[in-house]
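Lab notebook, bench 4. We co-purified these components, and the gel suggests they stay together. Before we commit to crystallization screens, I want a quick structural picture of the whole thing.
Request: model the full complex, all chains together.
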Amino acid sequence: MAELSGKPKDSFAQIDRGDQLAPFELTITAEDVALYLEATGESDELWARYVPPLALVAFALGGLMDRVEVPSGLVHTGQEFDFCKSVVIGESVEVEIKVASSSRRRGVRMVVFATELFSGGAMVGSGRTTVMLAPEDGESQEAS
Amino acid sequence: MREKDAAPEVASVTRLIDQSRVDRYGVGGRDHNPIHFDTPEAAKSQFGRPVAHGMLVLALVSEAMTKAFGDRWSEGGHLKVRWRAPVLTPARVTAIANLRHVEDGVATYDVSCEDENGEVLLAGMARGPIDS
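Here is the predicted assembly.
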């Protein structure tokens, strides 16, 4: 198991099960929420005070991509998340991400990232993100 | 009142996902993967053109659950989905949730997102706590 520094970006090819990203902090502003809502088209009076829960997931994954060099062919294939507590706009959230599993079959790489979000020591959410990277043309299709 | 009767009906949400929205989501959703934009990487990808962010599609499910559950969605909601097909823009996408069962004060729904041709883009389940 290794702690991924994220500086410079760690390579997706190098990460393995048990690796853990150095924890990082998110503080989501009203402008961040407004940009997110404008893009998704969602509106609800709740989001005048709180961060939309899926925005939290998106921003945590954005932090992951800031720290791990993601190949352009990477595809997000699955997402699981438990939302435990509303996060107020401006509240700081600590993000912990580790590699829950990593496998390769017939050249296709599958990686599951486990994410936990905390605020003031309490968990506000947790989830698992599955990504897939298909082999590039000419790359081995053999099982490994 | 039976527990199942306390489960809210989750209304569907439909939205046009076009390249302009995808471009804006790249900023608002902090996902700058070039496969989502008009880039050489998107052109040479397995899809041959830009595809919408999966999280942008999933946002419709979260929106539908928020409308039904309010802040209980943020404070006890659960979702688990898999993407089945890429969204090639423009597409009119609808998020649908059908009540599967209610147990121990939690309502479970089968959720999906479909395009205007009925192709399933995403499928899975979502749960929310109900007032009992």
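Strands of chain B lie at 13-17, 78-83, 91-103, 106-114, 120-129. Worth comparing against the SEC data before the next meeting. The longest helix of chain B spans residues 54-69.
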